[in-house]
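Sample entry (182 residues):
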Amino acid sequence: MAEQKGVEIRLAAVLLTIYPRQGSWHALLMQRTKYPGVHSGQVSIPGGEREAVDANLMETARREFEEEVGIAIPSEIIFGPLSERFIPPSRFAVSPYLAILSQRPQWNIDPIEVDSIIEFKVDSLLTDLAMRPVKMEVSPGLFHLMPAYPIQGNEVWGATALILTEFMEHWKQLPEATRSMQ
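Predicted structure, serialized as tokens:
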């Protein structure tokens, strides 16, 4: 639809990782640093724009993940993509991928791109109250109620919330024993 209206689409990919920590599955998000741009300071899944060196969008997700949080992820543990999401303000068509790690890595964040990392229990998104409407500024001076996950004092909304919601729909289909790590 956007391409039909003459909007130049930018391709991007993100890599949602889950890993065991303290007896439960955890996932990683990051808060971006403040910079002049639409996604400044937002909470997101590590990832970014496709570059000419990337053979495909999965490679984009791997490269960006390593640049932002300092961990190289082997392609054999990456699944996906999940459903592509279009982000109108930045014109990104984002392809989300999933990686399942056998242990929690030692993060080595890039302080230029990443303000902080946010680790949370995956099952915390399973409750009926996990998502709620939050008034968000969607463009300068324009506020809307948006569905968001409150995660560790952050409002996770927009494409990140949509990707997490789709992931959780798949997660719910797994046997309880797999989800609980018991």
